[in-house]
Here is the input.
Amino acid sequence: MSTPSDPQSEGAAAASREWPLYEIFIRARGGLDHKHVGSLHATDARMAIEHARDLYTRRQEGVSIWAVRSSDIVATDPQEAESLFEPARDKIYRHPTFYDIPDEVKTL
Amino acid sequence: MSGAALTAEPAGISALAGLPPLCRYALRLGDLSLILGQRLGEWVGHAPVLEEDLGLANIALDLIGQARLLLTYAGEVEGRGRSEDDLAFLREQGEYLNPTLVEQPNGDFGETIVRQVLIDAFQLALYERLASTADERIAAIAAKAVKETRYHLRYSSSWLVRLGDGTPESHARVQSSLNRLWRYTTELFEEDDLDRDMIARGIAPRPADVRSAWSICIDSILAEATLERPRDAPYSWFGKRGEHSEHLGYILTDMQYLQRAYPGARW
Here is the structure.
């Protein structure tokens, strides 16, 4: 905070040192899935919900909020992307693209 | 300049006397929201973290939204064609009827939070009662404001608990802010002629009822925050009658600059 070199990144570093990061998921309407919308810093679960409400629902974006500690998310390693995802690339028969869809069916 | 201008009563005091009681009552409610909204707006770009910056700005915007509805109504009741903007930007200091508490400086983040808790709990107790008042317009505005205010209090009280029950430093700071600001709470519940008139017409709740609801709410928050409730001070501030502390003039200087310098400016 004291050195004026790069206040923004210093501020961010200080915030991340003190306040954990939460990932925020918003349900836009009843019946829809919660979708990831971004992340924020908060000291605890309650504050995470309050911040999410103030940051991500101020334009009526949602009716429900989930907040998850970012450190609690188990993720794939980008280094392993080849072995995990490449093998599916040449198996186009797994896509249901070989069916004729009747005109009456609007939302498939 | 003529001597008359110097010896005249301060503008505002006499202007107030000509206003219908319901108009003055709507101004009391509206000016509370307007001035507190303006105060909270000072945090924009200065809050401790980005998340709080937006949180405070959201509350400020809710408050200014309430002020717009109430000042519009006050202008209609007055019946002289004054708009919400005329009332917000072109009155003199003595014509503002907000309680003195809301014009107190922001201080540090903790002091802003203390002021906010005291006012949020007051607005909540007040608007819950005004939602079923005899005046339909005020009832509708109150019904909308109650939902906003519940969130404001949730936000401010959770911070007060965090700070009060936090480190020795944060505890000492918010306790001293509480001690400093408490004296301005007496005014909120002081019943005067205007209140009695509004009570008689079924519009305003009794300040004593608002006070007991407020007091229960504040006591439970202070207990959780491990803060001590200060002693009540005798009533010495009269913001709601247009007699303000030295701070309001500076707020108005900021707030009114544009409309005073460029009358009728629009964007």
